[in-house]
Amino acid sequence: MTEPETTEPDSSTPPSPSRVRFAYALGRFLLTPLARGLYRPRITGRENVPLTGPVIFASNHLSFIDSIAIPVAAPRNVRFLAKATYFEGTGLAKRLSRTFFTALGASPVRRGAGQAALEALEQQKQLLEAGEAIALYPEGTRSLDGRLYKGRTGVAFLALQTGAPVIPVGLIGTDKVMPVGAKIPHLLPRATIKFGTPIDVSAHGPASSGRARRLATDEIMAAIHELSGQELAHSYNEVPAQTPIERIRQVLPHERR
């Protein structure tokens, strides 16, 4: 594809892996102490996080800022999926958006079910196989009423398929720091990020088993609930698909028990 005659970069061409690694390392070096200093999050359980090897952070989801809070609080690099539109386009605003999300360790993913969702799932699997840590939300989308909803089985599928341990994460107060509709985070109140002990879901069976995926998901959600202390909704969050993990579950069998 011929590059257009413009001074803006071709947003359809992804940056090289070395450029992504450099941007992430620089972003983590600069943003992490800044965010901790400004927002002073309470962080517990960092000692539970393996510093090497594949890891899945499975968290409750209350706010847009959750995908910033987890990488800032974790003792190692964390990757997550973000809408491809954050990485596309020209102009100063789009370039800043692309730089910001790359620096946070985000990987672009297309909206939609079907092939796009399967590609997102494969993207996460490849990151795990490369020894990376990824963050996912089993509920699929943000909880707008503060309750903890039933987990989709996509996270358990990845854990069972790759053998990666799952670190449950309980986020408290992120919806107060950055409520729905807010443009920037509030300095008060302070959020709490809790990392639980690693969960090995392999005892539940193979990834091909629907029962194994359901039981593994329930174990993960129970650990998240213990950390977050949220009221249980006892149902799925049926808001229309807005996040990558929600779209992944649309093309995976998910058991409703």
TrEMBL record:
Gene Ontology cellular component list: plasma membrane
SUPFAM superfamilies, A to Z: Glycerol-3-phosphate (1)-acyltransferase
A Gene Ontology BP annotation from the UniProt entry: phosphatidic acid biosynthetic process
Positions of the Phospholipid/glycerol acyltransferase domain: 55-174
InterPro entries: Plipid/glycerol_acylTrfase
CDD domains per record: LPLAT_AGPAT-like
Pfam families: Acyltransferase
Domain of life the protein comes from: Bacteria
Keywords: Acyltransferase, Transferase
Keyword Ubl conjugation among record annotations: no
Any one Gene Ontology molecular-function term assigned to this protein's record: 1-acylglycerol-3-phosphate O-acyltransferase activity
Protein name (database record): 1-acyl-sn-glycerol-3-phosphate acyltransferase
Organism field: Microbacterium protaetiae
